[in-house]
Amino acid sequence: MFNNGNDAATTAAILIGLGITLAISLAINLFVCWLVYRANEALPPEHRKTESWQAFLLLIPLFNLIWNFVLLARVSGGMQSYFGAKGDTSAGDCGASIGLWYSICCIACFVPIASCIAGPAALVLLILYLVKISGLRTRVLIG
């Protein structure tokens, strides 16, 4: 509306800010995929419920909303299989319920009013899930 001669500079600043935001977002998503990949890769092949590389399918927009349900349940299921074979029941559900609630919150983020609660809840649940499977990964590696 008010042309003050700074349109090109403003557009450039917005594009740079958007690019930086997207780069940070991609880096965080890659880190999450890598943590899930490492947890699944630590399992012996006979206990894996999914291929480890499939963790990186979480990088596909919108597909990841459904893939969260599948992948996180399979990684937790593989951990349950491993600890069940060892006779260790202290691992519980290996984060399966946390992964399920995280996946539900990701879907709920698309509901306008619910997103105010679902967004922060999804972040907290993701952190809890990653901490859980990283701890279980360490236990698998120790033996």
The overall pLDDT average reads: 92
If helices are DSSP runs of H or I spanning 4 or more residues, what is the number of helices? 4
Task: Report the biggest beta sheet as strand number plus sense, adding barrel if it closes.
Answer: none
- Poorly predicted runs: none
How much of the sequence is in beta strands? under 5%
The computed structural class is mainly alpha
Helix content: over 70%
Distance between the termini: 66 Å
Describe it.
- Helix content is 71%, strand content 0%.
- The protein has 143 residues and is mainly alpha-helical.
- It has one domain (7-142).
- The longest helix is centred in the first third of the chain and has 36 residues, at 7-42.
